[in-house]
């Protein structure tokens, strides 16, 4: 009888055959863009083969090898799969810590560019938060009534998260920018179509942790996709706190597979924890939504 290794090998062969078929058999238009019918075929094949691979991987001791096969396939097909999925959308980016020199900033910008999206605004937050300075700024802001004091830090964070995602009048951010923000790019008023969070600072403690948990909860409840991302080499993962706060997560944003997962989540795919680490409960990629149209289109 054929054993499990045979099935894994045959599935790898199917992947490779499909790649060859795509590269050789799928015509590319004069503009270099794969048409919608061929893209639909491609994404259906990815979804089908990934389900089969995931099923075998749960039974196989060769999980790492299976993952390499899947990643190779996505690497080959990524440009066609990512193209225009977020066309016309505008995404807010939040760095918990400095964004200066952060390689994750390049990864996020690459994903947004590949999918046709734009960065609406960026906020890089000072860590840890200077709570006395924060309280002094809040004392001058009428909109902060009921949000002052250390016992209300989580509620304050939620309000800040909602303001950042929804835009419009943002009295809290206007008052607290000097206390909270290290680097500020882009206006506050336009609403975001999605939010990406990346933690570059070490894990925080005490009052700062409570404020950040609230911030993540506010972003996650704002009515748009909100995703926390990190790179595969991060030794102190933030995935657990993202999950606790109701954010989706991608733990391999430095790979094409991770960037595609981010794109799909921002497009509206099933929320969850995706990537290659043990905390990625939902696999490498979410199910693929249909190719996006611009908001209002």
Written description of the protein model:
The chain is of the alpha/beta class. The chain has two domains: 4-82, no CATH class; 90-274, Rossmann fold. It contains ten helices and seven strands. The chain has helices at residues 4-25, 36-59, 63-82, 103-114, 131-138, 153-166, 171-180, 206-220, 239-245, 256-267, and strands spanning 90-96, 118-125, 181-185, 194-199, 226-229, 248-250, 273-274. It has a seven-stranded mixed β-sheet with strand order 3-2-1-4-5-6-7, with helices on both faces. β5, α9 (239-245) and β6 (248-250) form a beta-alpha-beta unit. The longest helix has 24 residues, at 36-59. The chain is elongated and about 60 Å long. It starts with a helix and ends in a 23-residue tail after the last strand.
Order of helices and strands: HHHEHEHHHEEHEHEHE
Strand order of the largest sheet: 3-2-1-4-5-6-7
Question: Could you tell me the strand content as a percent range?
Answer: 5-15%
Count of distinct structural domains: 2
Pairing-aware structural class of the strands and helices? alpha/beta
Strand tally is: 7
CATH class of the largest domain: Alpha Beta
Distance between the termini: 54 Å
Poorly predicted segments: 1-10, 23-33, 292-297
Q: State the helix count.
A: 10
Give the helix level as a range of percent.
40-55%
What form results from the Cα inertia axes? elongated
């Amino acid at each position: 009888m054929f054993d499990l290794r045979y099935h894994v090998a045959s599935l790898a062969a199917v992947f490779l055959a499909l790649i060859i078929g795509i590269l050789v058999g799928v015509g590319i238009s004069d503009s270099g863009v794969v048409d919608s019918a061929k893209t639909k075929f491609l994404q259906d094949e990815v979804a089908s083969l990934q389900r089969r691979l995931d099923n075998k991987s749960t039974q196989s001791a060769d999980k790492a090898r299976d993952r390499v096969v899947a990643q190779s396939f996505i690497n080959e097909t990524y440009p066609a799969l990512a193209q225009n999925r977020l066309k016309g959308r505008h995404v807010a980016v939040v760095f918990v810590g400095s964004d200066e020199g952060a390689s994750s900033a390049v990864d996020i910008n690459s994903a947004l560019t590949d999918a046709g999206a734009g960065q609406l605004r960026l906020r890089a937050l000072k860590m840890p938060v200077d709570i006395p300075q924060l309280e002094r700024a809040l004392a001058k802001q009428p909109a902060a009534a009921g949000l002052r004091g250390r016992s209300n830090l989580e509620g304050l964070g939620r309000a800040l998260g909602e303001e950042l995602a929804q835009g419009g009048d943002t009295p809290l951010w206007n008052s607290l920018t000097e206390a909270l923000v290290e680097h500020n790019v882009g206006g506050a008023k336009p609403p975001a179509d999605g939010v990406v969070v990346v933690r570059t600072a070490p894990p925080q403690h005490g009052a700062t942790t409570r404020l950040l948990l609230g911030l993540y909860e506010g972003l996650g409840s704002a009515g748009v996709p909100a995703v926390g991302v990190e790179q595969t080499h991060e030794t102190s993962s933030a995935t657990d706190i993202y999950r606790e706060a109701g954010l989706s997560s991608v733990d391999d944003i430095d790979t094409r597979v991770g960037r595609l997962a981010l794109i799909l989540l921002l497009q509206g795919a099933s929320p969850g924890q995706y990537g290659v680490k043990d905390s990625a409960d939902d696999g490498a990629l979410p199910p693929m939504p249909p190719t996006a149209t611009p908001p209002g289109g």
